[in-house]
Amino acid sequence: MNADYQFCPRCAAALQTESLGGYERRVCPSDGCGFIFWGNPTPVVAAVVEHEGKLLLARNVAWPAGTYALITGFLERHEIPAEAAQREVVEELNLKPLGAHFIGHYTFERMNQLIIAFHVPAEGEVTLNEELAEWKHVSFDEATYWPAATGLALRDWLQSQGYQPTELQLPFRNKR
């Protein structure tokens, strides 16, 4: 639940927490309003970019050095997810996508996102946009995956290609 969502966007009354459908929800108590903040996840597309026979991973400018991941972006209104994944490859890397092949969908609970992942083969010379600090190629047989949403998409795609990637051990991950 989003703790920042304190007031009703319809009538400006203070929201209160109630149990609805088995979950705690923010609801408007005003008579006749009926607003409920459902907290639906935000759809995000992710691209496992294959470039020059290798994986292409990138680092966002806000991330620490050495942190690389897939190309991602928000799904825009009226966009088809496969087209959105290709759009992100063009916008962030200036590469020409050669298609988009569905891998799967994954929850990213921490950010309340639904990740819709695609394999996007691409060609051309990489030119990063302002969102990315750097990029690198990784051979398929040396790739590791991180144990969360886009990392699981990478793992699944690599396994579908006959590779057995190992899980990257993150120092901050809680073990169960």
Automatic annotation (TrEMBL):
Cofactor: Zn(2+); Mg(2+)
Molecular-function GO term, any one: NADH pyrophosphatase activity
Domain Nudix hydrolase intervals: 40-160
Assigned keywords, A-Z: Hydrolase, Magnesium, Metal-binding
GO terms for biological process, alphabetical: NAD+ catabolic process; NADP+ catabolic process
Alphabetized Gene3D superfamilies for the sequence: Nucleoside Triphosphate Pyrophosphohydrolase
Catalytic activity: a 5'-end NAD(+)-phospho-ribonucleoside in mRNA + H2O = a 5'-end phospho-adenosine-phospho-ribonucleoside in mRNA + beta-nicotinamide D-ribonucleotide + 2 H(+)
Gene Ontology annotations for the cellular component aspect, listed alphabetically: cytosol
Keyword Magnesium: yes
Pfam families, sorted: NUDIX
PANTHER family the record matches: NAD-CAPPED RNA HYDROLASE NUDT12, NUDIX HYDROLASE, NUDC SUBFAMILY
Family according to the record: Belongs to the Nudix hydrolase family. NudC subfamily.
Protein name: NUDIX domain-containing protein
Protein's organism: Solimonas marina
